[in-house]
Amino acid sequence: MGYREKVMLASYVGLHVIDYGQTRWGLDHGYLEANPIIGKESSRAKILLVKGLICTGTIYAANKWKNERKTILAFGIIWGATAVTNNYLVIQWKWRF
Questions:
Q1: 79 Cβ contact partners less than 8 Å away, ≥ 6 residues apart
Q2: Contact 9, 74 (CB under 8 A)
Q3: Do residues 80 and 19 touch, judged by C-beta distance below 8 A?
Q4: Is 96 part of any domain?
Q5: Number of folded domains that form the chain
């Protein structure tokens, strides 16, 4: 894995960490989760499980299909950035771990 792919992977995981923190803060302050897989009101364990499975699946796919690694990671980054941006617009960037 080259330098650029490592940066993409770190960005992808970082966005999921930020999204997790924003999701926890929002749920603790009365907001509802929009992701139907996680559910409107969910536990910290379920959020970590779902995010962990999504990250693991994406990283597995990126390693299995090496020729498509940058495309897979780019899609994940776009998806994560969209979630974090939406959370920012809804809850104004607050987060909790």
A1: none
A2: no
A3: yes
A4: no
A5: 1
